[in-house]
Amino acid sequence: MSGATLRRLVIGLGNPYRGDDAAGPACIAELRGRLPADIELIESDGEPAALLALLGCAREVCLIDACASGLPAGTVQRFDVATAILPSLAGATSTHGIGLAEAIELARALGVLPRRCVVYAIEGLSYGAGESLSEPVRTAVRAVAERIACAGAP
Amino acid sequence: MPNRTIRVEQLTRVEGEGGVRLLVRDGRIERAELRIFEPPRLFEALLRGRELTEAPDITARICGICPVAYQMSAVHAVESALGIEVSGPVRALRRLLYCGEWIESHALHITLLHAPDFLGYASGIDMAREHPDAVRRGLALKQAGNDILALLGGREIHPVSVRVGGFYRVPRKRDLAPLAERLKWAREAALETVRWTSGFEFPACDRDYTFVALRHPAEYPFNEGRIASNQGLDIAPGEFEAHIDETQVRRSTALHAQLRAGGAYLTGPLARYSLNFERLSPIAQEAARAAGLTARCTNPFRSIVVRAVEVLYACDEALRIIAEYEEPEAPACEFEPRSGMGIAATEAPRGLLYHRYRIGADGTISEARIVPPTAQNQAAIEEDLRRFGTQFLRLPQEQLRQRCEQLVRNHDPCISCATHFLQLEVLER
């Protein structure tokens, strides 16, 4: 696929039914109708082969995921992973359940990582089944969506 | 010689929280322990008091890699209690769903978890840099398995379409056509994977396993069959508990299983293949022979080739099912709850998965028992470590650790879907 035909994607990762894990999908919902038509909004459960397939057919990707790094809930971290590895990979505990960081590094090793690839990590507070977003995460989701919408690009 | 202890603080590519401890005396491994300290997950207690219709979806949550296996053992067990026999296209679709799970589970293990051992890499990511084509092929194969799950089950992980009596929804015949095109590619990719893995170097490590797997009169087993062994066992799933004991050992939070008549046994790809070679389709048999396998495989390191043969078979079988598919009149049969005992065993990617439920007249579950393949394989894995580990004791510590991990990984244990630390302790006396 040539660079001109490769896709531009915003991918929200997470389980919409597990509290703040829904930060990614919630961001996708906030962005509907606010981005140029050639940018696709995708919700993903993070399944690694499917995620790799998406990364492999894109030239610009923005990924939004919840994280639990110990920072205050609602903290937003932005990582340019086109140029550096996602920090969580240091000391990774990968298993059958290969995570976002491993999927990105696999894409890099295979030479299919998009030339522009950004990760927004939103610190969650609670991940209970059936819970809605916590207030700090709801605020953070709006802020991340606003930033992406203003940029008009993944 | 002083005791020596090797600790690996973080192990990738094995599932669950476990460790290995080797006790060495006079240059030989006297005792090998697979230590599993993952907390119990209490699913059997969780099921008590729940509706019989909930068993497939609750048990599917035990594993993100093999949810179909749990759904299938659960749904067949409940149906056996209700006297339901699923047949025709609905039965075929369940077999197709299982093909998808084998493809995605095996492709992941072969490519990212097991192959790095043979090619000398610490991880699948490291291997991908120098073997990108093989990794791309493996991931695309996994995706083909995912596609089956997504089409039949509504999503790639924890599919939601299976219900007691059949499916909530079945595909139209035309829905399956694009899937068949992808599976034709996948069958070729699987054949290439058999060739690729057969070229690896395998240590000379054969032993006389007691293999236990399902056997069906006509099919390579997925959903049904009698439980058979190469030592003469031939029982209905309902007789499982009369022939197999589960006991607790201090070093493991997973129960150890033993044959009453014969001690430790192995379930999984090696057992399934060795007890059912003649049930494989011609293309799979031919690929296995070309890969240097005979009709029985007793070298655990070659399990990677056997898995590749099973991926090939699953692609071939999926294509056969799709070609013969006719839409059923109804996606499921109706039923009335009734009291009874329901038992089933199916073949998860890692081996025999046994479920038993006692159901009350009101349709609630009063008792559940689940025996997963990894629990059954613990004693056989320990025996592998004891028998084959000795020849690796002279290796430098890092290589010894890697070989011991490989001896565990040969059986693709799925201790849980959690994080995992493996500590290898070698105590010399």
Structure description:
- The complex is a heterodimer of chains A (154) and B (429).
- Chain A is 29% helix and 23% strand.
- Chain A is of the alpha/beta class and 154 residues long.
- Chain A has a five-stranded mixed β-sheet with strand order 2-1-3-5-4.
- In chain A, strand 1 (7-13), helix 1 and strand 2 form a beta-alpha-beta unit.
- The radius of gyration of chain A is 15 Å and the shape is globular.
- Chain A starts with 6 loop residues before the first strand and ends with a helix.
- Chain B has 13 helices and 13 strands.
- Chain B has helices at 43-47, 55-60, 67-82, 88-119, 124-130, 132-153, 173-198, 240-243, 269-276, 282-290, 303-324, 373-389, 397-409; strands spanning 18-25, 28-36, 162-163, 166-167, 212-215, 226-229, 234-235, 244-247, 256-259, 340-348, 351-359, 365-371, 424-428.
- Chain B has a three-stranded mixed β-sheet.
- Classes of the chains: A alpha/beta (154), B alpha+beta (429).
State the helix count of chain B.
13
Range of strand content of chain A: 15-25%
Q: What would you call the shape of chain B?
A: globular
**Shape, per Cα inertia axes of chain A:** globular
User: What is the N-to-C order of secondary-structure elements of chain B (H for helix, E for strand)?
Assistant: EEHHHHHHEEHEEEHEEHHHEEEHHE
CATH class wording of chain A? Alpha Beta
Largest sheet of chain B: 3 strands, mixed
Quantity of strands of chain A, as a count: 5
Distance between the termini of chain B: 7 Å
Structural class, judged by helices and strands of chain B? alpha+beta
How many individual helices of chain A?
4
Quaternary status of these chains? heterodimer
Q: What share of the residues of chain B lie within helices?
A: 40-55%
Name the poorly predicted regions of chain B: 5-14, 416-422
Main sheet makeup of chain A: 5 strands, mixed
Helix fraction of chain A? Answer: 25-40%
Strand order of the largest sheet of chain B: 2-1-13
CATH H level of chain A: which superfamily? HybD-like
Proportion of β residues of chain B?
A: 15-25%
Strand order in the sheet with the most strands of chain A = 2-1-3-5-4
